[in-house]
């Protein structure tokens, strides 16, 4: 396993608080991830170096996202970004929306092992009604113009999208600020 040395250095460089307890939560996430991924194909991530790089990519928005008490992650898959953000902000209530049964089961086990306050909804976002969160996030789910109508009733304060460059065309016109770290583009919008 990685030990998250480069993750800790990256967080320090970004000015993001990252104590030993956060690193331990990430190590727990990594162990659970690879244990499940070996038999259930949770994600295409196959090695600790890539896992740690994903964690850095997921944490980077904490440089510019206002503090949040609740987070809803749409299409949580292998736990990126929600479980990474939860490891760094363990006081936040997490709600992870993931329709895939195996991935939802993994998310529940990993969040419990990490000691996070987490609800898993095994559903599609368009069917989620009785939830709300200060920060709503999603990694590479769909273009902002498709995503916003699906989540408008859920988000109370801000939306964070992790996306590729192909999804940037309409983002500024829709009021999203844009940031980039390495190959990941981040779209952030305060409501």
Could you characterize what this model shows?
The chain has 191 residues and is α/β, with parallel strands linked by helices. It has a single domain (5-190), classed as Vaccinia Virus protein VP39 (Rossmann fold), CATH 3.40.50. 38% of the residues lie in helices and 22% in strands. The chain contains six helices and seven strands, in the order H-H-H-E-H-E-H-E-E-H-E-E-E. Helix 1 runs parallel beside helix 3, helix 2 runs antiparallel to helix 4 and helix 2 (20-40) packs antiparallel against helix 5. The longest helix is centred in the first third of the chain and has 21 residues, at 20-40.
Helical element count?
6
Beta-strand residue percentage: 15-25%
Q: Please give the number of β-strands.
A: 7
User: What is the assigned CATH homologous superfamily?
Assistant: Vaccinia Virus protein VP39
The CATH architecture comes to: 3-Layer(aba) Sandwich
Query: Secondary-structure element sequence?
Result: HHHEHEHEEHEEE
What share of the residues lie within helices? 25-40%
Arithmetic mean pLDDT: 92
Instruction: State the CATH class.
Output: Alpha Beta
The span between the termini is 39 Å
Strand order of the largest sheet: 3-2-1-4-5-7-6
CATH-derived topology: Rossmann fold
Supply the number of structural domains.
1
Radius of gyration: 15 Å
């Amino acid at each position: 396993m990685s030990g998250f040395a480069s993750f800790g250095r990256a967080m320090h460089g970004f000015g993001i608080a990252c104590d030993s307890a956060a690193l331990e939560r990430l190590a727990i996430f990594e162990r659970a991830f690879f244990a499940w991924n070996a038999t259930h194909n949770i994600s295409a991530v196959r090695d600790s170096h890539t896992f740690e790089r994903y964690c850095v990519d997921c944490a980077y928005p904490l440089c510019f996202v206002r503090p949040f008490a609740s987070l809803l992650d749409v299409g949580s898959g292998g736990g990126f970004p929600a479980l990474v953000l939860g490891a760094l902000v363990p006081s936040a209530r997490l709600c992870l929306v993931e329709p895939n049964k195996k991935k939802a089961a993994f998310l529940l086990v990993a969040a419990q092992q990490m000691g996070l306050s987490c609800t898993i909804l095994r559903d599609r976002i368009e069917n989620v009604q009785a939830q709300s969160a200060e920060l709503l996030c999603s990694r590479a789910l769909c273009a902002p113009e498709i995503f916003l109508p699906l989540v408008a009733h859920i988000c109370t304060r801000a939306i964070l999208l992790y996306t590729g460059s192909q999804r940037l065309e309409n983002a500024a016109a829709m009021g999203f600020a844009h940031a980039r770290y390495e190959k990941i583009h981040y779209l952030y919008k305060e409501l």
